[in-house]
Amino acid sequence: MEEIYxxxxxxxxxxxxxxxxxxxxxxxxxxxxxxxxxVNSSAFFKFVIEGKRNLTKQSILKIAVALKLNENERExxxxxxxxxxxxxxxxxxxxxx
Length: 97
Description:
It contains six helices and no strands. The protein has 97 residues and is mainly α.
């Protein structure tokens, strides 16, 4: 699995995660990931990776479970998402710390 701690962009992490799984298993798809996360939209992950959709606290938790992140990885992923989606420098600084 990709070392999540080496990422500063959650979209890039999700893209790399998807591509590495797809390379191993051609049947791996955005639809499959969405189903694992309990998301109704089969294009959800594609839109998130492309920056067309942001994540909410609820969707962050669903994705963390679908990707089988451990507790520390989940916390890092959540902070990474909030850091990337922050609107102000103050918010970015808070989540970066």
